[in-house]
Amino acid sequence: MKRFFTRALVLLLAVGFAQLANAQQTTPKDMVEVGVHGGLMFVSGDVSSNFGTGGGGYGVGIHVRKALDHIFSLRVDGDFGKATGSEASIVKSYETSWMSGTVSGIVTVNNMRFDKPHRKVNLYLALGAGLNKYSTKADYGTGSLVDVPNTGDMLAHATMGAGIALRLSPRFNLGLEHDVFMPMGGSIDLLDGRQNFPSSGGDVDRTPYRDLMNFTNLRLNFNLGKGDKMVEPLYWVNPLTPVLNDIAELKARPVLDMGDDDNDGVPNSLDKEEETPAGAPVNASGVALDSDGDGIINLNDKEPFSPPGYKISKDGVAMIPPEPKITEGDVNKIVDAKLADFKSTFDGGGTLTDWFLPMIHFNLNHYDIRKQEYEKLYQVATVLKNNPKIKVVVTGFTDKTARDDYNNVLSYNRAMAAIQHLVNVHGIDRSRLILNYGGEGSTLVPTEGRSFVNRRVEFKV
Questions:
Q1: Is the dihedral of CA 95, 99, 102, 107 positive or negative?
Q2: CA-CA distance, 119 to 108, in Å (whole number)?
Q3: Domain with 403 in it: what CATH number?
Q4: Which neighbouring-strand residues pair with 39?
Q5: E strands in 294-402
Q6: Does residue 244 share a domain with residue 116?
Q7: Tens-of-pLDDT digits for all 461 residues of the chain?
Q8: What is the CATH number of the domain that holds 140?
Q9: What span, in angstroms and rounded, lies between the C-alpha atoms of 395 and 436?
């Protein structure tokens, strides 16, 4: 019997977890049931419970239950209670204290409903296993209860039960259940203080079967979870509800109207403008196009792509104000003003050609002045002599053939070489020449590597 219950429980749990794995992608999220229960606890054994004369007992407990799918669910129970009984034989009376924890697999047997989304009544069977601890006191004719040896240890047990629950609201249901606990171990027949095997003296008063703990209880069950995102526990929900909802949705869908009353090429069922003017180009929703958004459809718009920001005529044409005409006299005034501004920068001396400041160039990795550049430096010196109040910034540059730090030093040396030539050869005051260097950071030709054009010194007023 013990082996049968163990195998049955393992099979039930395996089926339950398989159902959970397969259902996670297809079933909605459901609430968790928690509850309290209480009722009559009594022993089926060798000594009568004598319900009519005050025998029996009581039990209370709590539980948590979670659905695996619409049929299978798992429940964890914690129970505590006392059972009593009496008779006029060897055991005059007994009192057994019981405490247990049980994990049960539950099967809903009335799971199909074709007419309603939820069932009102839930019939179920339970099979489980757990641990218990009980202690028994018995009166063996002495008139007082004494502790029964070999009780009070932690034992395993198997359990089976059946129940019925009534759905009162989406959050609450009321259940009635009967459970039978079968202890396992050396003291399996001491729930009522008597053992089930004969003694060496052949005690014929002892019965040949083990004791069972019974618990008939009333259950108050509450469903916990977010009502707007979760459904009731699945054992209350009709598994055909998604199918029924899909069927209802299909029935509620409007009949697809393929007619085109305004002949714009868009069916009535998709047309957002049912009376489009004849001949007007439309978009995918059947609405007449207004490409420039001026409120006049392209069909009637003489300028379908008017520039934005202007008032629009009744024909959709942008009313752009005419540009003012410029006379020859206006042009002469503008030119004279520009020339006056330009001449003011000369500070009273020189002509336009006197301000030409050429660049000089260098050989690769050199900063000595090439003879070909002497004429250019003479031109720079001439500008400085003709305009004694100006100063010139002398800036050296390199190409990109070395490291940045090396090129910075090389560009500095090139600028210094040009300044020294102007000072030593042409007698220019050193204070009028401002040294600057840019390394490879400002190339005239955007190229990597050698570039004669980029190896230069520039002169700027």
A1: positive
A2: 11
A3: 3.30.1330.60
A4: 59, 217
A5: 360-361, 392-397
A6: yes
A7: 556 555 555 555 555 555 544 444 457 789 999 999 999 999 887 777 776 555 678 999 999 999 998 889 999 999 999 988 887 677 777 888 899 999 999 999 987 666 677 889 999 999 999 999 988 888 877 777 877 877 778 889 999 999 999 999 999 999 999 999 998 876 777 777 777 544 444 444 455 667 888 999 999 999 999 878 898 999 888 777 767 777 777 777 776 667 777 777 778 777 787 778 887 788 877 787 888 878 888 878 788 888 887 888 888 788 888 867 666 676 567 656 655 655 555 454 545 445 678 999 999 889 899 999 999 999 999 999 999 999 999 999 988 888 888 888 989 999 999 999 999 999 999 999 999 988 887 778 777 778 788 889 999 98
A8: 2.40.160.20
A9: 4
Phi-psi label, residue 368: left if phi above 0, alpha if psi -120 to 50, beta otherwise: beta
Q: Give the CA angle between residues 32, 38, 43 to the nearest 5°.
A: 125
Same domain? 31 vs 175 = yes
Tokens representing 257? 């109207």
Domain count, the chain: 2
Cβ neighbours of 268 (radius 10 Å): 14
Residues 227 and 357 reside in one and the same domain: no
Residue in the block written with tokens 């005239």? 444
Same domain, 242 and 340: no
pTM of this structure:
0.49
Question: Same domain, yes or no, for 49 and 167?
Answer: yes
49 belongs to a structural domain:
yes
Identify whether 440 is part of a domain.
Answer: yes
Q: Establish if 136 belongs to a structural domain.
A: yes
List, in order, residues 6 or more apart from 390 with CB less than 8 Å away.
347, 383, 384, 432, 461
- The Cα–Cα gap between 50 and 38 comes to 20
Kindly state whether residues 238 and 372 are assigned to the same domain.
Answer: no
Helix (H, G, I), strand (E, B) or coil at 457: strand
In a shared domain, residues 244 and 342: no
Domain region containing 343? 336-460
Within a domain: residue 446?
A: yes
